[in-house]
Structures are given as structure tokens and as C-alpha cells.
Write a structure and sequence with these properties.
Layout: E1 3-8, H1 12-15, E2 17-23, E3 29-37, E4 40-52, E5 64-66, E6 72-76, E7 98-102, E8 122-125, E9 130-135, E10 142-146, E11 152-158, E12 173-174, E13 177-178, E14 192-195, E15 203-208, E16 220-224, E17 229-236, E18 239-247, E19 252-257, E20 263-267, E21 272-274
Length: 278
């Protein structure tokens, strides 16, 4: 709970707009726009885009990101408790357990993009707790780190060419495994997963590396909150291949990417780290 996500408008240098995803009064999700002047934000400038009621206190998701289309994407969890008791993940009429997509350029504060698949803010569904999402700076592909229930953590991948309407399977599936039913056709299996038996507990999605080290180019980097491990994921010979790259010993809460494509991560010990080769 608290402040969970932040994204700067593509024209931030001109309009000073930035967007936050946070839990406010009653623990409900608010996605709001603020305006800054110079290095200071005006707290009275808040414009609430969405207020989403949360039935429980956990699984709020929280990530915000602007896509290559200039739309604002927001990741929301399934509403909490355990096992998705309200079955929000597979309900396209609920904003919970979803990736939402808003046009914040052509409306004030936003309008629905005409090509959203369900005639609402919903862009993709079947997610449990998409804590962190990102877009590849080069390809525009969407990457999602979806926190699992009690056995499997997953990385989901949506190519830019697919458009909306993707179903990532929760709560019918946890990762590529049956959870609340049998696997069904049409559900997108994760690009990578790892088990709690391996020592992990909560995946933290990252970014595709597009910085100054050619040998890392195109590798998606992600980590685990409990183990502090960071993996690299790349498509090779038609298969997604994960490889353990770092054992940091840190509790990894989030990743970041600078304008040069270099990647950082933060821990809840208050430190920020930059990933580099030895």
C-alpha cells in the first residue's frame, strides 16, 4: 500500500504532468495526475483519473508506464485476499487483475482509446498482482512481472504487434500450471517462471537492456524480492532462456531505466544500485 507507481508524461518537459498510482482513503486505488514546475510538484494540482475500490488490502499492483503509442498503462492486482475469491482475474468487466490503457493526451483527464478491446479501460487480463511492468524502448513489447500465489512466480510477455485482449490465465492458472481449473487454449503462458521451492517469493519485473554494453543488448532483466537474485531472459532458438546473472542479497523492490538504457534497481533498505559487468 502507499505510493506504488509513477510515470512522467511523454511531453513532461512542456506540460509538467506526471502520474501516480497510490492507495488512498480506505485503501482504494487512485490513479492521479499532478503537475510540476521546475523541480517542485504542486500537491494541489491533483486530478484523479480513476478511483478503483479494493475489496482487500493486498494485491494492489501499482505499476504505471507510457507505451510507444503514448497511452498510459496501469497495472492492477486482482483485489487481494488469496486465490482470487471474487474471480476478478478472468472477469473482463472488472478493472482488477488487469492492465488498463488510457488516452491522457486527447482528453482531460483522459478518454478511452477506440481500440481498447472491451469498450472500457481494460487492455489485458488474467493477472494476479502485476507489481512491475515495462516497455522495451526499441521494440515496444510489453513485459509484466506477475507475483504468484504460493508456488510460481512469472514473467509475461506481450509483443507490440498483438494489441489488446490478451489473457494471462490467472486464476485458472498460476504460471503455466493449473490452479483454479485446467489450462485452457487461448491463455498466454509465461515467458519465464520460477518456483518458491527454489527460494524465491515475489517477482520484481524489470526492463530490457538497451544501454552501452552490446553483449547485454535485448536481454530482459528481472529479480526476486526475497532471494535478491537477478536473471537475464532472452529468446534463443525459439525458446525463452533465463540465466542467473547476479546474487545481490538485497530485497529488490523495483527496477529503473535511464535515458541511455542503463538499468538500476532499488531495495527497501533505501539503496539504489546500478547493474554493471564485473
Amino acid at each position: 500500500m502507499g505510493l506504488l507507481g509513477l510515470a512522467f508524461h511523454p511531453d513532461y518537459e512542456k506540460n509538467g504532468y506526471f502520474y501516480v498510482n497510490y492507495t488512498g482513503t480506505g485503501g482504494h486505488t487512485r490513479i492521479s495526475r499532478f503537475q510540476a514546475s521546475g523541480n517542485s510538484a504542486d500537491k494541489t494540482s491533483e486530478t484523479v483519473l480513476l478511483l478503483v475500490e479494493q475489496p482487500y488490502q493486498n494485491h494492489n499492483g501499482g505499476a504505471l508506464a507510457f507505451g510507444p503509442d503514448g497511452r498510459l498503462y496501469a497495472a492492477l492486482g486482482d483485489g487481494g485476499s488469496a486465490g482470487d475469491p471474487q474471480k476478478n482475474g478472468q472477469n473482463p468487466n472488472s478493472p482488477l487483475g488487469k492492465i488498463l490503457r488510457l488516452d491522457v493526451t486527447d482528453g482531460d483527464p483522459y478518454v478511452l482509446p477506440a481500440d481498447n478491446p472491451f469498450g472500457s479501460e481494460v487492455w489485458a487480463y488474467g493477472l494476479r498482482n502485476p507489481w512491475r511492468i515495462s516497455f522495451d524502448k526499441l521494440t515496444g513489447d510489453l513485459w509484466i512481472g506477475d507475483v504468484g500465489q504460493n508456488k510460481w512466480e512469472e514473467i509475461d510477455y506481450l509483443p507490440h504487434s498483438w494489441g489488446g485482449g490478451a489473457n494471462f490465465g490467472w486464476s485458472v492458472m498460476e504460471g503455466s500450471h493449473a490452479y483454479d481449473g485446467e489450462p485452457q487454449s487461448g491463455m498466454l503462458l509465461p515467458a519465464a517462471e520460477y518456483s518458491h521451492a527454489e527460494g524465491g517469493c515475489s517477482v520484481t519485473g524489470g526492463y530490457v537492456y538497451r544501454g552501452g554494453m552490446p553483449e547485454w543488448n535485448g536481454i530482459y532483466l528481472y529479480g526476486d524480492y526475497c532471494s535478491g537474485k537477478i536473471w537475464g531472459l532472452i529468446l534463443a532458438d525459439g525458446l525463452w532462456q533465463p540465466q542467473l546473472l547476479f546474487e545481490t542479497g538485497a530485497t529488490i523492490t523495483t527496477f529503473g531505466q535511464d535515458e541511455a538504457g542503463e538499468i538500476y534497481f532499488a531495495s527497501d533498505n533505501g539503496a539504489i544500485y546500478r547493474l554493471m559487468q564485473k
